[in-house]
Specification:
transferase; Ribokinase-like; globular; four-stranded mixed β-sheet; Carbohydrate kinase family protein; PfkB_dom; kinase activity; alpha/beta
Length: about 300
């Protein structure tokens, strides 16, 4: 591999239920369709990283009951499976995704064996960077071991951190350690509020450590790039929304890939927006098309 990027966040199964409407509490509703996808934030991001010529290495434990379909998925999509390992007596976690006719999503997450961390199982490669998602930090001792590993990852390597919607479930001390290690932080507005509440200080306080930039996504209002010297706003691209699941992961990966290519951060933001938009135009978290389609979206905007 020429450009390996370590993906820490765990692999899970996305189980979709398409609804015409949500039921009133205690009542019933019809499911219009249901399907399952191999998912999890790192694998969603991996599809975008590949479009930029990077080699995402997903590190994750997988339950024995789902390893065959996971390996088949990796083979079919030409993803390296070196970082996968099987846990015989445990299940792979899953995310139940309820999607209504307004494209509003509700998540319910079941934690499985994907949080098990053993640094000896990480493929020994010359990683260019690490992408870390917050879900990986809610597994107790395993999460503590993962952050300890990141302390040895390399002072000159980028650490992209996406805390995610469960960021307030992370142990505050562990979250503090991760924040001090990361070089680029990506959050939405609600996650920003939760993080600052949990940490007890503004995210800009972490510029005194390794942090170079804070990226805040604002839905249809676009995104903000916060740096020590300035804050810039970037509009969202006009698209026809199909499903926003995975769009934030694609944005995160597009931003990370552009940073690793040495592009100015303002350009990284525009490319990231196009990556998120392309995914939001697709039902499911993995967008069709490649770098050509991403650049075409930018050109048409």
């Amino acid at each position: 591999m020429e450009n390996p990027v370590l993906m820490l966040g765990g692999l899970c199964l996305d189980r979709y239920c398409l609804l015409s409407q949500f039921p009133v509490k205690g009542q019933d509703t019809l499911i219009q369709d249901t399907f399952e996808r191999i998912g999890g934030c790192p694998i969603n991001a991996a599809f975008t990283l590949k479009k930029f010529g990077l080699d995402p290495v997903l590190y994750s434990a997988v339950g024995a009951e789902s390893i065959e379909k996971v390996q088949a998925f990796f083979h079919r999509n030409e993803l390296p499976a070196d970082g996968l390992f099987v846990i015989e007596d445990q299940k792979t976690g899953f995310c139940m995704i309820l999607l209504d006719d307004q494209k509003e999503r509700t998540f319910m997450t079941y934690r499985g064996c994907e949080g098990i961390f053993d640094p000896a199982r990480i493929p020994a490669l010359n990683y260019r960077a690490c992408c870390l998602t917050g879900l990986y930090l809610i597994y107790g001792t395993d999460s503590e071991n993962a952050v300890a590993y990141l302390h040895t990852f390399g002072a000159d390597q980028e650490l992209f951190f996406d805390p995610g919607p469960l960021c307030d479930q992370i142990d505050p001390d562990l979250l503090e350690k991760a924040m001090r290690l990361c070089t680029h932080l990506k959050v939405n507005e609600e996650e920003q509020r939760l993080l600052e509440q949990t940490l007890g200080r503004p995210l800009t306080a972490y510029f005194q450590y390794r942090m170079r930039a804070v990226v805040v996504t604002c839905g249809s209002r676009g995104a903000q790039l916060i740096q020590p010297e300035q804050t810039q706003s970037f509009p969202a691209l006009p698209i026809k929304l199909a499903d926003s699941n995975g769009a934030g992961d694609a944005f995160f990966a597009g931003y990370a890939a552009s940073v690793l290519q040495g592009k100015p951060l303002a350009e990284c933001m525009r490319i990231a927006s196009a990556c998120g938009a392309l995914t939001a135009m697709t039902l499911g978290p993995h967008a069709e098309g490649g770098l050509k389609e991403i650049l075409q979206l930018l050109q048409d905007a």
